[in-house]
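Re: weekly structure request thread

Next one in the queue (1689 aa):
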Amino acid sequence: MVGELRYREFRVPLGPGLHAYPDELIRQRVGHDGHPEYQIRWLILRRGDEGEGGSSQVDCKAEHILLWMSNDEIYANCHKMLGEDGQVIGPSQEITGEAGALDKSVLGEMETDVKSLIQRALRQLEECVGTIPPAPLLHTVHVLSAYASIEPLTGVFKDPRVLDLLMHMLSSPDYQIRWSAGRMIQALASHDAGTRTQILLSLSQQEAIEKHLDFDSRCALLALFAQATLSEHPMSFEGIQLPQVPGRLLFSLVKRYLHVTSLLDQLNDSAAEPGAQNNSGPEELSGERDRLELEFSMAMGTLISELVQAMRWDWALNRQRPLARSSCSIFQPQLAEAGPGLPPTRAQPSIRRSRRFRPRSEFASGNTYALYVRETLQAGMRVRMLDDYEEVSAGDEGEFRQSNNGVPPVQVLWESTGRTYWVHWHMLEILGFEEDIEDVVEANEYQGAVVSGALGVALPSWRWKPMTELYAVPYVLPEDEDAEESEHLTQAEWWELLYFIKKLDGPDHQEVLQILQENLDGEILDDEILAELAVPMELAQDLLLALPQRLDDSALRDLLNCRVYRKYGPEALAGHPAYPTLLEAQAQPQESAGAARVEGKEPPAQYPDTPLWRLLEDCGPPGRTFLDLERALSSEGPQETEIKPFLLQLQRQPQPFLILMQSLATPAANKPLHLTVLRILMQLVDFPEALLLPWHEAMDACMACLRSPDTDREVLQELIFFLHRLASVSRDYAVVLNQLGARDAISKALEKHLGKLELAQELRDMVFKCEKHAHLYRKLTTNILGGCIQMVLGQIEDHRRTHRPINIPFFDVFLRYLCQGSSVEVKEDKCWEKVEVSSNPHRASKLTDRNPKTYWESSGSAGSHYITLHMHQGILIRQLTLLVAGEDSSYMPARVVVFGGDSTNSLNTELNSVNVMPSASRVILLENLTRFWPIIQIRIKRCQQGGIDTRIRGLEVLGPKPTFWPVFREQLCRHTRLFYMVRAQAWSQDIAEDRRSLLHLSSRLNGALRQEQNFADRFLPDDEAAQALGKTCWEALVSPLVQNITSPDEDGISPLGWLLDQYLECREAAHNPQSRAAAFSSRVRRLTHLLVHVEPCEAPLPTAAAPRTKSRNRSHDWSSLATRGLPSSIVRNLTRCWQAVVEEQVNNFLTSHWRDDDFVPRYCEHFHNLQKSSSELFGPRAAFLLALQNGCAGGLLKLPFLKAAHVSEQFARHIDQRIQGSRIGGARGMEMLAQLQRCLETVLIFSGLEIATTFEHYYQHYMADRLLGVGSSWLEGAVLEQIGPCFPNRLPQQMLQSLSTSEELQRQFHVYQLQRLDQELLKLEDTEKKIQGGHETSDKKHKGEKAEEAEGAAVTNVVVEEEEEEENEDLYYEGAMPEVSVLVLSPRCWPIASICHTLNPRTCLPSYLRGTLNRYSNFYSKSQSYPALERGPKRRLQWTWLGRAELQFGDQTLHVSTVQMWLLLYLNDLQAVSVESLLALSGLSPDMLNQAITPLTSLRGPLDLREEKDVPGGVLKIRDASEEPRPRRGNVWLIPPQVYLKAEDEEGRNLEKRRNLLNCLIVRILKAHGDEGLHIDQLVCRVLDAWQKGPCPPRGLVSSLGRGSACNSTDVLSCILHLLGKGTVRRHDDQPQMLSYAVPMTVMEPHTESLNPGSSGPNPPLTFHTLQIRSRGVPYASCTGTQSFSTFR
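Done, posted below.
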């Protein structure tokens, strides 16, 4: 069947490819707040199920969710369901053609006929009691069935007489009458589900209906119920092994289920529109509703109890007391540590330790322990690693091989790596040989070993949580608040206890009520008063002491497992397994009865020592009861009156009966026991009371005995007789046998015994005929379980909506069983607890190391080798595989047999036997087992080629744990997601209409999160289930809310952005805690902290939000959230919103204050306030700090070029002033350093922006003046190290590097001068020696005189030559000249304007300085040949006027520039000099010379400037001492002050022109390459080539830019960055390094231009990853000494 999919445009994503669509209104009620609520059915469809194209036809049996919704929620999510009057449109009432064709008169006649036919059928039924039904009765029923199929006549069949007729027909012994009743019921139920349910409910509530129904009638009703519930709860439990539930229990479950659903419908109807209930007052309505709620809770508890027993959950699980889950946030991811005070430890089921070797913790020092290990360790011993060491980790085990004197000295064969590795002595713990090792299970000992150092010396670091997060999770109650116990039970706890009181019958019930009345002042207790009682804790404890003796076995198990008993029960019973406690609780009545018999002189019963007695001797009194029953059965002609009391007792305590049946699965050697058991069971089947025993719970044992190949033939025959008899008496058990696969087992038994088994074929045929019923039973079990899960989910939804507690008994028990398996993650390849082998256990780990090159090798006799697997509880093996290798030859297995059992002593069931081929590598031993075997043993019976020992390469076990948790998790998450997504959209709608409601979002969210937190703490058993709920709730509620409140509206402002703007504006006013601003700010902080306290995983690429409309007539299209509403989108959307807020704040500030004189300090203060606000709102999270930086960068990017240049110049100027001011020292200097640090933090935002290029330009100028004027310091390098990324060309770093290189050259120059001095001195010594030798050999002749004259001339010539060479290079005399330092600067990194004025040493410097410069020039030219100093082509030096000097002027030390030094030295020879002559002599510009003269002529300067008429510029002369007073001693700084540039001057405009030209050039080149685009590197090369060669741009235009005509790759990248931000250039999605021209689709304002068409606001700053900048340490140049000056090129 198909139906129309209405409202297909409103969909809610529930998962990948899964959506929910609103379908129709089911019912209406008044909510707890007095407002109407509507139950809407939502269809669950997968992608493609909703139809192709415009098709809207869907399957009517599709999954659905019934959700109660308020009017606002319907309006916000599917407003088309509202009519013009604002009311929800109900389902259309379509009148069928058949109904319209019936005339009223005809319809009345037909109703009369139906009534008469009903009366006739009842009369005919009474007449044919005990006889064959006559044909008229069958014809009457046939006519009634035909009338029942007519829908307009449905009302007539609701007559109570129709139910009486159906009851009589269903209880009739004749099959045809029962069949006719089924046909009539099907005809009535064919109209709609409501009629079908009403019929089922009416029939099931008839008294003693089960006594009158036979197997076929019951199956007819069950089939009808299965048909009724098939479309209601289409839930699949595929892969989960459901138990075999007989029809009797299924019918009881159906009755309970129908009763619960009926009460639930009555509850919903009782809360219908008030107008329909005017006949009763509010108090009566409230009392009636309270009565229905109590009745519903009790009925639901009964249903859960019976369902738990039918599913055998209470027996399948280990009877352990549920552990309390830690009370931590379910919305935050789990931390690694186990708790707040414990280090993280891995869960270890058992710890291996040595019995006789000492651990490291017992030694005082590591050396002592190392000596002990070295002396004790022997080859072959097992050891454990205590510390992580290279490739070996702490905890790894291995076998000690040998030691030597090397380092490290110990060789161990490690199991983790499969090879040997050398370690140190102190790193090992001796385990010893295998017999010395024991398994330690105690967890506290393992933790103590960790703390004491047995497994490691250092504890792992714990995660510290900042204090700012404490108030971010107010939904988690503090521990002291949880521990505070109330004096009275809660209503849920009291109703759970009241459930057991209502279970009592007769005197027991009155006794318990008497206890209540005595403790409540004798108040008369009726049902209404009982429901509202406030029960003290002491009274509850008294009741829990009195109840166990009065409850039967089933109710007692429920009591011991319920929460109220675990919380208030006796301490002696708390924490013990349920069933032994049950036996102890039931022991007292039996002992009392025994005592009575003793007092009556009755001799005590003596039981012979038989196998049956030995089997039941540990069962206590119930076991003795069964032995008495066996004795009664063994007597001649047992009377029913004697047997019936024992059977009734067994119904209350069936444990001995189950033990008896389960004994059939014991080894075949117990033949006498098996025959005795089968004899007793055969006799029990004949008693009707025995059929009420839980036979189905132990049928697995019968099947195990039937399948076992070792079962004795006689036992097998008796078993066939018993099963045949049981299936004949109750066909329900034939159905159970069919479900257990008895047909195949019987066939194999017949084949084995050649068909000589009596009644075996009849039993097989009987089982085969029940195939259809087995399918029905399985479907019914699935439907009932699915229906109960849906009702549980409905109660959870009501709990969420009404905030009322869940008062249903065993609600937590049911959820605990549904969540079974969530606490332990069982991987498919890790299904066993441990693996044991027959020999060489130290190599057993090779079976599971996944290394095919390693193997386990046995050691023993042939056929005695085995591998034993201890499986995890509940694991059904899907596949068991053995890995072998043909290369093992005779070691390879040839025949393998697999056995299963409940323990190692009961491995008697052969599961499979396999012959292994010599070429095999993977041997599949088991597949798709249907039963859980705790122990699996693989026996190698024979090896290839008659080998003795075997080798197994590996073992693989596949078998996921069959639990209901995956199914329940899916349903729980679906309902939770739908509920909170609907609520999130309703809240978002409120916020869209009024932004001020955003202030209440924090309290709303806290309420919802606290609700889920409390629910998880109360009902969910472990952390995984709680985390699944928390994660789903967070994704469904918080993620859509964040998406909506961060999406901009038509004005481009998001609600959260508006709220954050308001927070920033009132931040200063919020310092007063009594002000409204403080309360407002507190709400904002609580909201933001709540939104970000869960840190999700990294988000995918951000998706820009589209503007939202303010119109109210809209519903949300959740399709976008299918991709954007992921949990990681929360932080992504919040950071995007915060970035937009910061960007707007920064943009407004820049627009208003960019011209201010104190712009930089105010901007730094503004940035600091934004940083503090970010920390206050979002805590120390890197994502929001990055958003803050991106927002500031976005504000800077909006500035026009000249404004941006002005801002960058202001920052460079501010840094320059603070660096120079820090040289003052003292408090003022420290203040300057603090201001500098704050400014540097702000400047870091320039990194990667276009503004960084202009900032580097100005910073380079000011840094050059500082370095040349006052010298370098450590602060220069520290500043560059912090803001180095802000310099794309790295020019400042290169300037410091050049200073370092110059200092190295200066040191080399010093050595060079010393070498030249040594050479000259050596020449002088050689000359003196030659002169002395000449005087000794000469005579007194004239010839000798001429020779002397010649030598003297030579000497003179030499002197003259040296005097002539003085202009080039003088001899170096240490300490004779002023100290001169020369710094060689490269024009590649130093500003060109600074070195444009050259200095001529011959005309402007004295001779004693020129000589030093000449020597340095010669040294530098010679150093070009040494590649260690300089590489590349030879360079020449060009002396400039730059530099500084220290001059001695009287008692003063003048600190001056090079120009000032020259001027002052020039005045040493002259009394006065005109400025005009100085200009002519130096070649300096007037501005530069005047800049140098001004400080010299100040009050502190040594010169006076006098104006004369005929001398332009004036005359300079040294000031007389008699004139103005000045300091007579000390340091005087006369260096010209820093000259700052202006961004608005010609140079700034030229930079803007250059950028515009580069932009045009880039666009021109990209346009030429079309859509293919260019690689960014190729684009940069082409732009630089065109810039240098032309013709575009023209050479004249480029040359007119002056200093702006220079262009490099960084300038081009900066322009590309600008164009990308404007959207003119785009990147390719698949290849981001490829750029192409983007054709603009619309004209956008500069401040709204965006890279993505769907995004709003400016793009975040972009960076290029192809330009990699590496930094390295820069050695800082030290200041020069006194009496020195420096010159620079």
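The mean pLDDT is 75. Residues 1291-1337 form the longest helix (47 residues).
Next request, please.
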